Structure formats: C-alpha cells, structure tokens
C-alpha cells in the first residue's frame, strides 16, 4: 500500500497527541488499550476482533495473506459459532458493532500467529525463510494493525476532549435554523421512537454503529482489484478523522437528543422562544456539525464507484441511504448537519481519492462545493450570520437547495469520470509497487545529510534557551520595562544579523564549512559557560554608570546597548553565522537553494519552538538560569563534537553528483517547477523585489509578533508560561509554513509562493481581528463546566495554548511559507557575490527588518496608533508587498494557472473581491469592555464592572481601562457610580469598597515606622495608597510606576481619591520598575511601600526574590521598614512559605498582617521597628494607647517575628526554601495557584494560625517546665 509506513506514523502521532491531551485535560493516564482477555469473555472476543481481526480480514480477503483459504474459512466459522454460543449463554442486546468483531476474533488470532511466524527474528528460530509475499504481509499487517488501533483510540480520545473544551454549543440556534425544513428530523425521530419495529430499529442501529468497521473493510475490494495506490485509500481512511475534529471545534454541536433530552421533539416551544446565542451543554460529545457519519458513508460510495464490480457501489449507496436516515432517526443529528455535509462529501472525498482522470483542482464544481461548505461553516460559526439564518428561513431553504444541487451535480460529474476507470495492469501495479521506491532512492543524494537538520533542531533548541536566559539576566540588570527588554532583543538580533553577513563571506572562502560550523558551536558553548560571571561584571559596570541617573534617561539606553553588545556580541554573531555556513556545506550535496533554506529554517525554527515550550515548562523551573545555561552549552558542545565526527566520515563534496546550474536558469530542487526563462534585467528586478519583501517582511514579522503578544497578554494571560506559549505557537507556525514550501514548489514558482504568502498574512491579520471577543467569551464559558470537571493547571495551559495558536499560527504559517521563497529569489540574484554570501546578505536584510519591527512597533507605533490600527497598518503593508511581488513576478502567473487565462482572471477577481471585503469589514475599534473581563485568569467571567469609559494602551503599560457601573443602594435607593481601574483585565482598584482596604494596607507599616523623611511607593494604581502615605507627613515621596498611562488615567478619574498626589511638590515620579530604581539610585528611605497587582505576572516575582530583598535592605535607612503586599488567595501554601522564608532570610523582624482579605508583609532589621508606633510616628506605650483606627490595624496582625523564627525552625533547612533570581521558583510556581480546586485563602490562613498556635503551645510548655 502506498505510504503505509508514513500513515502509520501519522496515526501514532495522532494517538500520542490525544493521549497527552487526555492526560492534561482529563487527568487520565490510561493508555486506552485494555488487554484483550483482561475483561469479560464477550469483551475479550470483541477486543481480539478489533485489535487483530479487522486487519487480518482485510489482508486475507485482499489476497495478501500467505495462508491457505481453508484455514481462514475455518477461523471464520469458529468465530461465527463463538458468537452464537455466547448469545445462547447470555442473550444480551447485541448490535452489529459487537457481533462483527466477535465473529472475526478467530481470524485475528490466525492472522496474528501468521505474522509472528513470518517475522524475521522468530522465523529464524523455526528455520523458516519467509518469501517476498510473506515479508510483504508482515509489513502490511503490522502497519495496518497499528493504523486501526491508533486511529480508533485517537478518535475516542478526541471526542472525549470536545465535551470538556467546548462548554457551549450552537444547538439552540441550529434547531431554529432546522425549522426551515418543516420538522423533518423531528418527525423522523418521533416515528422511530413511536413505532418500535425490531427489524427496522436493528437495521438503523447496526448501520450507524458499523460505519468505521465497514469503511475499513472497503479495503478488501480495493486490494483485490489492486487499486490501493490508484485510489489513495489510506488517505481516505485517516484524513477525514483529522478534519472532523477541526470541524467539530469550529462549530460545536452536540445533537438534539443530548441537548434537549426528553423535551425533544415534542416540547421545544421554550427553545424556539428563547433568545438566540450559544448555550451551555453538560459534558457530551460535540460531534454534530457536519455529520461525518454521513460523510464517511458517502466516502465509501465514492471509493466503490471506482471499482470494476459495481455491486460494491450499490451496496455502499444503500448503506449511505440508511445512514442518512439513521443519523436523524436516532436523534444524533439535525437535517442541517447532513445538508452541510453534502458539499463536503464532494469537496473532501473526491480530493482525497483523486482517481486518474478526475484532477479535482481543475474542476469548477469542486471549487463550488468547497466554497459552499466553507460558507456554511462560517455562517454557522459567526453569531451575526447564524442569527440571520435563524430569522430568515427562506434563505436557509434557498442556500440548502443550492448546496444539495451542487453536491448532486458534483457527484454526477465524479461518476462520469470514474465509472469505467480501468484497474491497473500487472505491469502498472508492479511498477507502482517497486519502481517507485527505486525512483525515490535515485532522487536521494548519494550521501545522506539528514543529520544536518537534526543538528539544526538541537541548535535551535539551544539558541532559544540562550535567548531566554540572556534576556532574564539582562532584565534584572537593565530593568523590567519594555524599553529595556526590547533594547536587549534588538541587540541580540543585531548580532545575529552581523553574524549572517560575516558567515556568508566566510563560508565562500573556506574549504570545509562543516569544520567552521563545529568550531563556532563549540565557542558558543564555552562562552555560554562563562556568561554568569560576565553578567555579574556587566551588572557592576551598569550600576556604576547609572548611579543616580534618572531611569528614563536616554543615556541609559545607550549604556544598555553598549553593555548588551559587549556581553552578547560574540555568541550572537557566531549564532548568525551558522545558517550561511551550513547552507554552503549542503550546496555540495543537495540541489535547490530554496529547498535547502526551507529545510534548515524549518529545523532551526522547530528546535526553537521546542526550546520555548520545554524551556518554559521544564528546563527553567527545574534547573534555573544557571542550569539552563549549562544545558544549552552542553547541546552546543555536543553539536560540535557530532559535526566533527561526521566530518571524518564524509567524502569530498566534489564526488557527489548534484544538479548543475545553467546560466539564466534558477537552481531548483528535484521535482520543483522552474521559472520561465528570464534575461539579466528581469532576474535583477526580481532579486531586488525579493530583497524588499525580505526586509519589509521582517518588519511585519516582528511587529506582528509584538502586537499579538501584547493583545494575548490581555486575552490569554501574562504569566511567564503564557508568554512561552505565545512564542512557541508563533515559531510552530513559522516551521509548518516552511515545511509546506517544498510541497508547493512542485506546482508553483517562488514569486507565486511569495505573493500567496503575503496575501495569506494580510487575510490572517484581518480574520484575527474578529477573534478577540470570541476568545474572551471562550474563557468565560468554562465557568459552568466547573460543576462537572475541574480544570487543573496543565488543562488550562493546554486550552491557553490553543487560544494562542488561533491568533499566532495563521500569520506565522504564511510568514514561514514566504521566507524560503523570497530568500531563494534574493540569494539567487546575489549568487555572483558567492553562494553563501548572497544568503548572508539576504539574512542580514531580513534580520535588520526584524530589528526595525521591534523598535518601531515597540517604541513608536503601538503607543501612537494602538493595537487595532497598527494591525491594520501591518495588514496593508503585507497587501502592498503581495501586490508588488505579483506585479514583478507577473511572468510566472500564466505558468501557475497552466496558461488558462480565464482561470487566472477569475482568481484575480475573487481575490480582489475578498480583499475589498476584508478592508471594508475590519473593525474600527476593539470592544474594550469585552476584552478586559479577565476571564482567562480563573476560567470564568469575573464580576461585571460596567462599560469602559476611558482607556490607555502602550507597550509598557498594556491595556489600562476605567470601567463605570451605576449601582442602586438597596436601602436608600440612591444611585452611585463605581469606577474600576483595570490593567490587562486585572483589578487595580476602585472608588468604592476597595478605598478603605487600600488605606489599611498603606497605613499598616506605619505602626513600625517612627521617621517621616523619605518614602518610596512602588506601584501607583488608583493613587490611593500613595495619597494615604502622603497625608502622613513624609518630607519626600518617590513613586515608581512602569507606565505613565496608569498615572495619567488614575489622576483623571480617581482624582477625588488620590488628590492628584503625583503632582504634589514633594513627590517625584519615576517611570520604571521599582527594582531597577533601587538598583540605580543611591537614595535611602524610611519606608519602602510596594503594592503590585499579582505575583504571578511575568517579571513580578522578581520583587519577591532574595536579591531584591538584599537590594531593599541596602536602600533602607537605619530604622527603615519595608511594606509589601502579598497574595493570599489562589496561592499555593508552599509558595506562601517560600515568600515568608525568603523575606525572613534578609530581615530579622517580619510581620504578616491580613487587612481586607489581603496580606501585608512588614519587615525591618532594627529593634526600633519592633516597638509599636502611632500613625504619626510617636511610640505607643501599649496597645491600649492606640486609637480606634490604630487598634483595628493592629488587630489584623497574624504573624509576628517569633512566628517567623518558628517557621524557620520548622523548615529545618530554611536556606533551601528561598526564591532567587537564579532558581526563579516563585515566577514559575505562583501561576499554578490560579488553578487550585480549594479555597486557598482559608487554607493558608488556617495553616498560619495553626503554626502560630503550635509555637505558642510549645513556648508555654517550655515556660511551664522552666518554672517547675
């Protein structure tokens, strides 16, 4: 069978992916394959029949089993008798889905032992030498059994996911739409239930349950007529299952029987009367739209139509007709499901089979069916169009009629093409079976160089780890602001750009590029081992230069760039050289510039995607920064050693035959389409155009990545894990796009692919603009599902990854598709400068474009235009690049359409209409009220806080909004407007109940502070806390806030609360992160007050690490005090203990207060702070001396220094329970607290109170024993 091994691998990957998903989503580790004889006897027979009997029957009846027919007939008779014996012993309600596997169990045993007997290792034990037929049977049986087992279990697991990850369905709306057919499905179901005729019900149930088995058994006549290669039956079997899952997720439908239960179909008046929209449905399969049962049955009809014996066609047609009735008679589907499936059957089925003479892509009716199905899916997915369908049933009938007519016409056209399709002759069959392998072997290079791509995967993995580790090191030194972060990124990429250019020059001048590649990888690894010491040195230098310079001063940006170049220059330049050097090496062994670039790019990007994913979830949480650096260095050194080892085994590339490039004809890979002949001027113009697209495309790539990550921080979350997912999905999209490049080059030329890629980016950006609101609703929809299933951390991250993929992967896919095409065109034009030098120059242009994209999007356009308009500008730029490349490469278009001018014009008109519609429909602005509900945090809709009345958006501050909600007092009836301040949907404060709570948090540390000199407030929020402290008479107040947006919007809307404290004469504002301010300023404070939004925000945990507390200790005056907000809700107990112990490692006196449900840490190293003070700084004699407000604050005390000392004793080795900048414990652990199934606040309070009681009990016991 054609590509049997490949499809078996795909089936295994499907199973593995669904198994991992089941493990994360459902918290199940069951592999799904019970031991055949581990259960009841009837289930054991069923398992044997499914596991081994189906594949054995296919190969036996398909004439591929080296066993006499009488043996297999005897096995069939044994199976038949087994069923009747089992039925006699236990007359259970057997249906055909159980009967057939029981009958096949003996065939399965015979087939399995035949397989074992002919296996090479076992055959030698018996002295048996299998012939060619037996060897072929062993291979076929093994892979076919794997496909059947893996496909069946993967399908079951995938359907299990749908009932959890799709809480809401469109069933209510779909039932209203289905009313257009005058209750056809309702009446069919009612008739089936009312008139219980055993024979009719048995037929219906049997046909419905047998679809998967019968579809597999259709292999038998295909094999008997030797058409498995002609009809692509393996593709027909597997691909629909993959497509079905995507369709189910796009338009989730559970089916009337499962949604409406006993109300269907008689009591549906309430459903018809209720408002339109999605509804929550308890866990059940969402496999309704389209009806893949009917589609699967029609696939059998389409395959059977190609067979010589038409009895199979008529039987399949009868089976499909009964399936059509069964889907509705059993209450599984609406009629609408089947109507949508009708054009799908033609579009998907005929494309998968694609028999000789059909050529689906040349058939207009095929495109009509494809567009009709896509139109149905889009209309049913979008609320606006779905509501339109429910309100205009005449349109539903009209469009349904068009769909059915098109499907029938397509089916008739298909029958005309394949009805008399001849079976392949013996010579054709043998040529297909054996000569294809020989041709593939001849097309391969004489020396295998696949290991090169393996090295690039490892190199990409290590490179991504380096980038993350270096960014985290420099983020601590230069500050956590976006200005500092993007400066580091630009510096990193600048080194890569320079390295690409230098690597191209070097590669053309050395005899052995692989040796230099190994050398550079070794140097990278050795240098990486020295980076921890280098970062410490850079930190000392930066602090010396930045001392007492305002953190927002431009001179600091210059120092960051220079110091970044010093520490990152060598490794980034060397990393940049690897692509042109390895390209030059492969040019000696492989033909086709674009092919080589695509493979290297894919390998490196996929390695980087793995690095982003594994680094975020495994490496950094487990090994920390130093361990991750050493692991990446180990990878680099191992790459170098392996490259040297392979170098010794390689012959000279001159001995390897490669394609010879003819002057004026572009170099292409094997089987790739060549450009029409061009003169020097045309090649120059095309090369210049490619360089422009490479450069400006680089701008679009990084700008798009930054803007989408900025928006996903609002939608999907801004923990360190979320950013890892965003990066990983973006890189996966790039890798998948470049993987497709090699396939497309067999039909299209590089200019056409580059144009399609840029157009794809344009449409992906436009379409993503309509996804944001729906993704917010998707997170909110999980609220009711909590009553049925708890989503743990792994499950939430998997869902979050899917959301990130929806936004990130489509544009990244087209970027990855266009990159090899444009790079190949550019390097082909620049080849006169050298093979690798041309690639190096093109890579330099692309990377410089990336840098420009980072700087322009991060520092200019996002702040100026906002995300909505900036995405639109990027879409317009991609469209302009597409039109530019289409015009420059216009000579390639007739060839792409096989010189069919009418098809070319029609495609151009359709594209133009789509572009105009996309530009016209782009949303003018986001629905900010919807975007900022914060549903991604706890997977439920947060409390409604009203409509957004004002907003600010910047790369530094994210999306800051003010929501207004008018409330009516229950007793007085008075209306009051509550304003709420949100950052990326996370609560910052309000002008209602939170005011008093924030006042308590701000005043609590004053019980331990005597002096009123200098105070530092980290985090502005509504400005209430800063105002409260300002009222206490401090001589000078410094406020550190990441973004001016927060201060600006807070002063406008919360001025009555904060009294415009930021504008007071003795208040100084610093727009930077608090840690960097303390690092670069030598000023000392009496009080440092810190109140951030959440610890689990990416980078926020740096303010709870030991190094931060050491820095605070150095910046406090002799009697200075630190006050720090700490989260008690959604906080794992161990994380809370880490925070308390880390703080106690640096401060002798630590108190924990609980004020307004929030934790307040107070720390100091002087005995003076241990004495109780009034709020005005006077020392209090006792608690009785305190006023009412002071007593209320003091009563919130939960832990005192003695309790902290006791905690350290209980931990035994407290130095091990410390979060540092190196181990990053809190940054990677605290996000998991959002997925806790219990009330963490109550648990943590009880835990700490019990610890306090234990300490008091132990202390009282020691006191009593001392007295005795």
From TrEMBL:
<feature type="transmembrane region" description="Helical">
    <location>
        <begin position="870"/>
        <end position="893"/>
    </location>
</feature>
<feature type="transmembrane region" description="Helical">
    <location>
        <begin position="335"/>
        <end position="353"/>
    </location>
</feature>
<keyword id="KW-0472">Membrane</keyword>
<protein>
    <submittedName>
        <fullName>Spermidine synthase</fullName>
        <ecNumber>2.5.1.16</ecNumber>
    </submittedName>
</protein>
<feature type="transmembrane region" description="Helical">
    <location>
        <begin position="557"/>
        <end position="586"/>
    </location>
</feature>
<feature type="transmembrane region" description="Helical">
    <location>
        <begin position="519"/>
        <end position="545"/>
    </location>
</feature>
<dbReference type="GO" id="GO:0004766">
    <property type="term" value="F:spermidine synthase activity"/>
</dbReference>
<dbReference type="InterPro" id="IPR026841">
    <property type="entry name" value="Aur1/Ipt1"/>
</dbReference>
<keyword id="KW-0620">Polyamine biosynthesis</keyword>
<dbReference type="InterPro" id="IPR029063">
    <property type="entry name" value="SAM-dependent_MTases_sf"/>
</dbReference>
<dbReference type="GO" id="GO:0022857">
    <property type="term" value="F:transmembrane transporter activity"/>
</dbReference>
<feature type="transmembrane region" description="Helical">
    <location>
        <begin position="290"/>
        <end position="307"/>
    </location>
</feature>
<dbReference type="Pfam" id="PF14378">
    <property type="entry name" value="PAP2_3"/>
</dbReference>
<feature type="transmembrane region" description="Helical">
    <location>
        <begin position="625"/>
        <end position="644"/>
    </location>
</feature>
<feature type="transmembrane region" description="Helical">
    <location>
        <begin position="839"/>
        <end position="864"/>
    </location>
</feature>
<feature type="transmembrane region" description="Helical">
    <location>
        <begin position="451"/>
        <end position="471"/>
    </location>
</feature>
<dbReference type="GO" id="GO:0006596">
    <property type="term" value="P:polyamine biosynthetic process"/>
</dbReference>
<keyword id="KW-0808">Transferase</keyword>
<feature type="transmembrane region" description="Helical">
    <location>
        <begin position="71"/>
        <end position="89"/>
    </location>
</feature>
<feature type="transmembrane region" description="Helical">
    <location>
        <begin position="199"/>
        <end position="220"/>
    </location>
</feature>
<feature type="transmembrane region" description="Helical">
    <location>
        <begin position="232"/>
        <end position="259"/>
    </location>
</feature>
<feature type="transmembrane region" description="Helical">
    <location>
        <begin position="95"/>
        <end position="117"/>
    </location>
</feature>
<dbReference type="GO" id="GO:0016020">
    <property type="term" value="C:membrane"/>
</dbReference>
<feature type="transmembrane region" description="Helical">
    <location>
        <begin position="686"/>
        <end position="707"/>
    </location>
</feature>
<feature type="domain" description="Major facilitator superfamily (MFS) profile">
    <location>
        <begin position="447"/>
        <end position="892"/>
    </location>
</feature>
<feature type="transmembrane region" description="Helical">
    <location>
        <begin position="7"/>
        <end position="25"/>
    </location>
</feature>
<dbReference type="InterPro" id="IPR020846">
    <property type="entry name" value="MFS_dom"/>
</dbReference>
<feature type="transmembrane region" description="Helical">
    <location>
        <begin position="312"/>
        <end position="329"/>
    </location>
</feature>
<dbReference type="InterPro" id="IPR036259">
    <property type="entry name" value="MFS_trans_sf"/>
</dbReference>
<dbReference type="Pfam" id="PF01564">
    <property type="entry name" value="Spermine_synth"/>
</dbReference>
<feature type="transmembrane region" description="Helical">
    <location>
        <begin position="394"/>
        <end position="415"/>
    </location>
</feature>
<feature type="transmembrane region" description="Helical">
    <location>
        <begin position="138"/>
        <end position="156"/>
    </location>
</feature>
<keyword id="KW-0812">Transmembrane</keyword>
<feature type="transmembrane region" description="Helical">
    <location>
        <begin position="905"/>
        <end position="922"/>
    </location>
</feature>
<feature type="transmembrane region" description="Helical">
    <location>
        <begin position="483"/>
        <end position="507"/>
    </location>
</feature>
<feature type="transmembrane region" description="Helical">
    <location>
        <begin position="719"/>
        <end position="740"/>
    </location>
</feature>
<feature type="transmembrane region" description="Helical">
    <location>
        <begin position="598"/>
        <end position="619"/>
    </location>
</feature>
<feature type="transmembrane region" description="Helical">
    <location>
        <begin position="798"/>
        <end position="819"/>
    </location>
</feature>
<feature type="transmembrane region" description="Helical">
    <location>
        <begin position="752"/>
        <end position="772"/>
    </location>
</feature>
<keyword id="KW-1133">Transmembrane helix</keyword>
<feature type="transmembrane region" description="Helical">
    <location>
        <begin position="37"/>
        <end position="59"/>
    </location>
</feature>
<feature type="transmembrane region" description="Helical">
    <location>
        <begin position="365"/>
        <end position="382"/>
    </location>
</feature>
